[in-house]
């Protein structure tokens, strides 16, 4: 059985403010249209080979018109980005495309959390666990007419697969920025004044630059609550877990969100037993309840996973002097002592606080519960669902366990949110994401072609199942027979 994913998207809240801004500031704030909406809004794509010439032309044109360009007004750069993760990298490339002289500051390695300690190596490990799980499923193999005599794995080779992928992506990001003329500055960046950044070694920043605009893209690190002692061997964070230095017989995972769920998939596929410790009253508390229920049935119940909900890990002590790891649990509501677990490995995840305009630090992937938000704001919503069991391609791969769920406004056809749990959900979700970003309604997307037999027909059936009030107009011309 291949790894099943659960993903969600919903319509974002958009806030804007007034006030005069410089041309460079307007360019910087407008860069977001060159990503998801680029093609629809006629934002031209930029090949790396075009970058230096385009940048030179933009600077020359701005200089000829006394525009805000690199170095004008005494600034060293039009834009300085603190943090060279995937977010900072994308911002840098878009800035150069708009003709801004750009520098990016990185205190560790290019790629940040995602490439080096997050989604890239984790997906490499999930690719392995998915194949291992499929090979171990004798019934699944026989139903496909395949016979597998034995399976096994090389732990170091699996770890190397993840590390090599991260290294390759890191190199690609670095080369793309260099090719487009982005200055990569090494050191820890600190904002020391208005439009002024100092960077260098930790505790000894010795270089200072000025910038018309500054983007903070410093990312995040695993959250470790008080009372939890990390030794990197028997008690460790997700950063350590991705190194796959060992595969213990038994692992406890503190937190059952998507990160904990991914590690449970990897470690159980490689032979470990897993115990979840979840402070809230249900597993996967951040998921849509219906999606979480199905995910528990498909991804947790059939596997060697048990769990404790409604309990908080108040203290974790690493293994030492022949004693195992100790986790002290207390009731999450009453704070009464529950019990002590003796286990081998712990992973932990945390959250990044942001305001409604994401002005503190953007937590990529945070998705509001669209239906609850709509109910709170007082407009009518409706929900429709489709199952992977009705999809020919999913059945051909014996992967019928899955669901797609649409939340929409029946009065306007506006798509508010989509949840998908099932085969290749991480790829399928982008049709819904693009529809929301472009303001495409249910009525309009019904006319999109979904080839048969493909998994995309799951969304085709989903959108066609939505009923919009009569009289609501749409801009798509209905097909007419020749």
Automatic annotation (TrEMBL):
InterPro entries: Class-I_Pyr_Nuc-Dis_Oxidored, FAD/NAD-bd_sf, FAD/NAD-binding_dom, FAD/NAD-linked_Rdtase_dimer_sf, Pyr_nuc-diS_OxRdtase, Pyr_nucl-diS_OxRdtase_dimer, Pyr_OxRdtase_I_AS. Residues 371-461 form the Pyridine nucleotide-disulphide oxidoreductase dimerisation domain. SUPFAM superfamilies: FAD/NAD(P)-binding domain, FAD/NAD-linked reductases, dimerisation (C-terminal) domain. Its cofactor is FAD. FAD binds at residues 123, 189, 218-220. PANTHER family: DIHYDROLIPOYL DEHYDROGENASE, DISULFIDE OXIDOREDUCTASE. This is dihydrolipoyl dehydrogenase. It comes from Dichanthelium oligosanthes.
């Amino acid at each position: 059985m291949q790894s099943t994913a659960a993903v969600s998207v919903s319509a974002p809240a958009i806030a804007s403010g007034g006030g005069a801004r410089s041309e460079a500031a307007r360019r910087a704030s407008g860069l977001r249209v060159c990503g998801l909406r680029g093609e629809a809004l006629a934002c031209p794509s930029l090949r790396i080979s075009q970058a230096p010439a385009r940048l030179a032309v933009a600077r020359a044109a701005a200089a000829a018109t006394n525009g805000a360009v690199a170095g004008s007004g005494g600034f060293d750069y039009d834009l300085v980005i603190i943090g060279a993760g995937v977010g900072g990298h994308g911002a840098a490339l878009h800035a150069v495309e708009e003709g801004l002289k750009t520098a990016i500051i990185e205190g560790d390695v290019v790629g940040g959390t995602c490439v080096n300690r997050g989604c890239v190596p984790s997906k490499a490990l999930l690719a392995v666990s998915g194949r291992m799980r499929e090979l171990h499923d004798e019934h699944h193999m026989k139903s496909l007419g395949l016979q597998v005599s034995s399976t096994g794995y090389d732990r170091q080779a699996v770890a190397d697969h993840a590390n090599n992928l991260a290294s390759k992506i890191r190199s690609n990001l670095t080369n793309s920025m260099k090719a487009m003329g982005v200055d990569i500055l090494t050191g820890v960046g600190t904002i020391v004044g208005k439009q002024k950044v100092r960077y260098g070694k930790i505790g000894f920043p010795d270089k200072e630059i000025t910038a018309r605009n500054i983007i903070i893209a410093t990312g995040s690190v695993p959250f470790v609550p008080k009372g939890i002692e990390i030794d990197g061997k028997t008690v460790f964070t997700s950063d350590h877990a991705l190194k796959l230095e060992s595969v213990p017989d038994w692992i406890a995972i503190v937190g059952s969100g998507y990160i904990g769920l991914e590690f449970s998939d990897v470690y159980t596929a490689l032979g470990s037993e897993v115990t979840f410790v979840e402070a809230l009253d249900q597993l996967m508390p951040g998921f849509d309840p219906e999606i979480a229920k199905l995910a528990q049935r498909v991804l947790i119940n059939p596997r060697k996973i048990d769990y404790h909900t409604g309990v908080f890990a108040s203290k974790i002590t690493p293994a030492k002097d022949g004693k195992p790891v100790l986790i002290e649990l207390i009731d999450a509501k009453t704070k009464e002592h529950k019990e002590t677990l003796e286990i081998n490995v712990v992973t932990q995840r945390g959250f990044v606080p942001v305001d409604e305009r994401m002005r503190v630090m953007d937590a990529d992937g945070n998705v509001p519960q669209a239906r609850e938000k709509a109910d709170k704001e007082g407009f009518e919503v409706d929900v429709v669902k489709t199952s992977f069991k009705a999809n020919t391609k999913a059945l051909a791969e014996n992967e019928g366990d899955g669901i797609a769920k649409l939340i929409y406004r029946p009065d306007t056809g506006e798509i508010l949110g989509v949840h998908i749990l099932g085969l290749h959900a991480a790829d399928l979700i982008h049709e819904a994401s693009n529809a929301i970003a472009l303001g495409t309604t249910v009525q309009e997307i019904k006319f999109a072609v979904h080839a048969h037999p493909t998994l995309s027909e799951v969304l085709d059936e989903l959108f066609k199942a939505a009923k919009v009030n009569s009289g609501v107009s749409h801009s798509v011309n209905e097909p007419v027979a020749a």
